[in-house]
Request: fold
Amino acid sequence: MQQINYCTLDKMKIKEITNFLESWAPPSLQESYDNAGLIIGDPSDDISAVLITLDITEEVMDEAINEKCNLIIAHHPLIFSGIKRINKNHWVDKCIRKAIKNDIAIYAIHTNLDNIRTGVNLQIAAKIGLNNLKVLNPKSSTLSKLTVFVPVESKHELLNGLFKAGAGKIGNYDLCSFQLDGIGTFRGNQNANPAIGSPNTDEHVNETRIEVLVHRHLEGDVLSAMRKHHPYEEVAYYLSELRNENQEVGSGMIGYLDKEMDVNHFLQSLKKSMNLNSIKHTKLIKDTVSKVAICGGSGSFLLQSAIRADADIFISSDFKYHDYFEANDSIVIADIGHYESEVFTKNLLYDELTKTFTSFVFCLSITDTNPIKYL
Reply:
């Protein structure tokens, strides 16, 4: 790794980087068992360089120390569950001790990065050459609908404010809304300060009913924008939770090859594109492959989703022995290994961060953290 004179480059706060990451992959999208976020460190601390890695091990900690990186961004969290004591016997304890002793912060961006459309699975899809992509198992209950009533002459200012805060985005479309004009009525009491009319007077106002979709993690920002850009002292609105599936958020991905391929040829191409030593797979019940389902990391829980989606092959990792029987002559399972399916995640993080922070030091870890070795 090239040595860099850190004194000539920018410094920043940890929270500047984590705020960007969390605007891209919101922590609210992580699974309940996960522990993504700032695991060690203070968001207001200054940092001078960042090391990006898939896993955190003692060797990665030493690499960060040698490269003078005081923030490590990892895909896999160092700590998943509660720790009752920290000693010198376990590898996690040793990493924690090194981090604290050397004032190194640790941040993890895990299942929240798995669950966004532009995250881990998009990286795999790009390497394999898939197009016409969709989320394999979309999440529900991640969307809300904001309905708000505003004077007709004020609707454009309000809509622009809502859109700027992130409302009205559906897949590849933005500025999405539904609008219906009608009559609004109200009467303020003697303590009111109405924008239209006078206290203790019945008012009838030409209003527009506006409806926009809101991603749940943006609700606070959107409601703040609504209040800022709405002329009324008391805003008439309601926010409804939706059970709709969110096609932009969820587990796995499914897409198509540019052209149908012989299954053996496809598996050889997969080994090359993902830099694999081997592939564990079920019997090749398909002669050709066209529709491909993928999931970085442990994806056996998505097997039935891949079958229901009529995929020819499901590429993931960590299948147990009996999981392979569940292919049930309906699909080919290709287990490429957990590390192998996600190792390029650090390149994804590096690319996103260097595009945004152009004069800051980001280092890609060169440590091989794969705990599995092959003869």
About this structure: Confidence is low (pLDDT under 50) at residues 1-8. The longest strand covers residues 245-262. The two ends are 28 Å apart (CA to CA). The first helix runs from residue 14 to 24.
